[in-house]
TrEMBL record, chain A:
Signal peptide segment: 1-20
Protein name as it appears in the record: Dolichyl-diphosphooligosaccharide--protein glycosyltransferase subunit 2
Assembly, per entry: Component of the oligosaccharyltransferase (OST) complex.
Biological source species: Hibiscus syriacus
Ribophorin II C-terminal domain residues: 573-673
Automatic annotation (TrEMBL), chain B:
Pathway assigned to this chain's UniProt record: Protein modification; protein glycosylation
Native organism: Hibiscus syriacus
Keywords assigned by UniProt, alphabetized: Apoptosis, Endoplasmic reticulum, Membrane, Transmembrane, Transmembrane helix
Entry's Gene Ontology cellular component terms: oligosaccharyltransferase complex
Domain of life: Eukaryota
UniProt family annotation: Belongs to the DAD/OST2 family.
Localization annotation: Endoplasmic reticulum membrane
Subunit structure: Component of the oligosaccharyltransferase (OST) complex.
Entry protein name: Dolichyl-diphosphooligosaccharide--protein glycosyltransferase subunit DAD1
A single BP term in Gene Ontology: protein N-linked glycosylation
Amino acid sequence: MARILARFLVLLLVVSICEAAPLFQPISDSHRSAALELFTLDHGSFKSLEETYEALRTFQILGIEKKPDVTAAACHSISETVGSLSSTPKDLFYALKANSIAECKIHAKASKGIISSLNSAVSGSSSLLDFYYSVGGLVLIKDQSSKDDLQLADAEGVFRSVKAFSQSDGRWRYSSNNLESSAFAAGIALETLAGIVSLASSELDQSLISTLKNDISKLFDSIEKYGDGTLYFDDKLVDGYEYKGPLSATSSVLRGLTAFAAVTTGNIDLPRDKMLGLAKFFLGIGVPDLKFYLACRVSIPLILSLPAAVLSLTKKDSLKVRVATVLGSNAPPLTVKLVGVFSSVSKDASLVESQELKFDQGSGLHILNDLLEIIDVGSYTFVFEVVLQEPDDEKVYVTGSQTKVPIFVTGLVRIENSEIVVLDSDLGSVESQSKLDLTAKNAVSLSANHLQKMRLSFRLTTPRGLAFKPHQAFLKLRHESKVEHIFVVGNSGKHFEIVLNFLGLVEKFFYLSGKYDMEFTVGDSAMENSFLVAIGYIELDLPQAPEKATRPPLQAIDPYTRYGPKAEITHIFRAPEKRPPQELSLAFLGLTILPLLGFFIGLLRLGVNMKNFPSKPVPAAFAFLFHVGIGAVLLLYVFFWLKLDLFQTLKVLGFLVVFLVFIGHRILSHLAAASAKLKSA
Amino acid sequence: MAREKSSKDNAQALFNSLRSAYAVTPVNLKIIDLYVGFAVFTALIQVVYMATVGSFPFNSFLSGVLSCVGTAVLAVCLRIQVNKENKEFKDLPPERAFADFVLCNLVLHLVIMNFLG
């Protein structure tokens, strides 16, 4: 699956190029070698025609020279597919697409065969993909065999059948049974419809085209966006295997749109900022040096980018902005305005006034130099606006509204007045005090007992002299037995202080007395001089641990072993019961039959007879059925034990019991009447 | 010596009188008695087996023994109801008693088969 996705990434991104336009920028060798690695010949041919086409197209766009073995393999599979009568429309479609690149010769007879089979496929199509492959195949064979008279019979009918798959929200379904719709299918449908229009013998009904344009604008209403103005199409993740992803969906829609725009007269009304958003999406994917053109009828977006989003106060960086077209070529004359600077604290109020950036002709950048006099360290959002100088350019280029760019400003944070003090708990009098130099390793040695407190304090100031709260300000105490305790240093304004009251911390320290190494760290992404420094050590004298105190956690010799595999768990399964030997069981089975035999022998000895069995036919039948019924119930019980379950048994038993009761009643009442008659007689 | 002989004689005389008294019971009652004996014997054999090999599938053992015991009990009930000398059941036709016996046996054996496992 990863391979397929990787191929899509390379292929669909480049295929959404307006077909006629060549590429200007050179592609790097890393792209070429990646493509060669991805598409390899397996025993002299590619695995499928789809892969053959993808390989050829990728090599073509990346500028890899046609290798003879690749071309030969491609031609071989293409001619095989084209010549065979049983090729599916999908195979023919990909074979013809590959052929448009590989340019193998197709015989006239074979192309006639293809045309007829594709035509029959079109009339027999029932799903969107069937239409796509058959119509697309016809368009391709028309180009390749230069049969200008190839036309689609009943183009309007086919158009309507494809249009039947559309939905009111602009997305399309794959078939009439499948209710799932997707933007990817919309792109495929647009391409198919464009193919139908190009193959039609006469002008199609304009109302069809205009409803389609409405559908396209509805599709664009469902476009999704990221916070920075990037727009893309995405489909609902229903089935993980079928899910194509935003890149595939967006590329497919653009391909369809391009194809459709090429065949219809008149413009398609699309909001220009949507085009800009889509351009940003493709650029945001991060594939370097691969630019793409949009269809010639849509405006070229201008992209604002910053070479550096992190500015350093110490290096006195200046703010630089570059505006270029999507291709990377130069923008027309324009000015960049800094509308405002917002921080997380002041979300609405800008920290600077709106000002214009100066354009430096030499580097092509717009620069603002003296900004950093005003701004302090931290993260900000800069809002820019691009204003074109020539009013005619407005029609060709689209600039979009304000662009928000997150900028990070770093600088040196000053640390002063740092000292560490041991105080008496009750009186607050200072017992020992040391000044710290937090730029170098210190060797402070203090001692304290559990009745005392330790205080560490310092001041932090930003380059502008304001208070600064770093992301991390921690004090770590480590005992000789490697038990560690970490404390967060809090602040009020510029003053940072932490007080460790050992009386309260005795239990937290597990009553461990001894030497504790102290380490101190202050860090922040905006600080250029974050540090971690060892301060020294403190000898703590804590009371004895009481009986019920918690033991300190065992420290691993190598702390990384706690991430290693744990001990293997052996499961103890219940030993199966001892069963007796089979011969013994069978012997007792035989022994159980013995009393039954004894019963029959006893019956014989008693002289049982069947004299009372009714002789007349009707009662005799009933008597027989009675015995049969009882026998059937007993047989049912045997089946119940062998394979039926209780509910099935009960169902059958219900019927049998009703039958038996009826029969039994008849025969037994008959016998009773007979014996009563005998008694009275 | 005489006492021993007399106790042995007594036992023998008792046995003989029982035997002769039993001889006059009607045949259908004797059939039922035979059936009861057969059921009890089967139960005994099952208990001996369980004593030999252990009671591992205890539900099977129980169902086997209870089937024998249950059918023996039902047969005894039938005997009581069918016996002409029993004044209590004078008005109950023996066919009705037999029908009850058959039906109750079928229900008992359904339960037994379910419990057999």
